[in-house]
Amino acid sequence: MIFIFKRSASYVALSIVLANSTLLPVTAMAAPQTSFRVSNTWKLGGDGSWDYLKVDDPAHLLYIARANRIMVVDTQTGKLLTEIGGLQRTHGVALDDNGQVGYISDGGAGSVLAFNRSTFKVIATIPAGKNPDAILFEPTKRLVFAFNGGSKDATVIDTSSNKVIATIPLPGKPEFSATDGSGNVFVNIEDTNQLLHIDAATMKVTATWSLAPCKAPSGLAIDVEHHRLFSVCDNAKMTVVDSQSGKLVATAPIGEGADAVAYDSKHALVLSSNGESGNLTVLHQDSPDHYTTLQTLITQSGARTLALNPTTGEIYTVTATMGHKPPPTKEVPNPRAPILPDSFVVLVIGR
Questions:
Q1: CA dihedral defined by 73, 279, 270, 312, rounded to 10 degrees?
Q2: Distance between CA atoms of 153 and 21, rounded to whole angstroms?
Q3: pLDDT tens digit string along 18-34?
Q4: Closest CA to 131 of 115, 145, 113, 112
Q5: Where are the domains of the chain?
């Protein structure tokens, strides 16, 4: 028996030549040698909390859901380009696939707003359920799915008319969502520790999968090529699920307080932003069913959401400096620490 190794930029291939000259390839993804670091800090300031981020790579823009507005940041300069205001409590942004229209989930107003991506003007206000949170664009049917945390359902919007065409009941509170771009939509259910599959053609839930041992899943990302879904959970775990069968294939440790996860297909990396730990977990995908921790990068407390620039490989996460938490009262039993004025920043992470 002879072992033959071949190395490329992303893979190490092991071929086993048996006595009868049969060649059996065994492929494992090779871990990158470079480490991440915080390469820049964009000081944006302004008041209010924050939620999801969205990268528009061709336009060099980063959208940040920021309390009563959407901040639009130029990723080439790190400067605030404009804001889409007049909102109540925003959560996220979805973008169509032709560069023309974006969609905002405004949880406070119970609506989805469509905006022109050239002028940043709102062109339609569409009623949704209670507290629309995660939002995505599904390209095969050209639909927007807004997942409503308060009413525990999903609003489906036809982008050709910007009208609601369906409301999908869900078994619990939806968190983040993902699509494979081929008509399959997935969403984490936070309070039941489940992952749902939705058929975009029928607009129905077709599968419900357990995420145990995950507790309170939030962020969700997908590896389309290998059919893997990554859910980050409140109990400092990430689960990996086969997107076709729903089988749990792996778990991996991450930091505390993760609210977002991204998959870098170019480098076979899974990235988890952990707000309570104040760090970024970088996991290497050794194979579709095996993951190892490559790096734990110190970021900053509160940096719980992120977005990946698929072209440059840069990661964006946001946070602010917090003041002292006030003591609990009868009216506010679980107070939050105040955000110090003008301390909001974008941390740019690169290699």
A1: 40
A2: 57
A3: 444 444 444 455 555 56
A4: 112
A5: 1-30
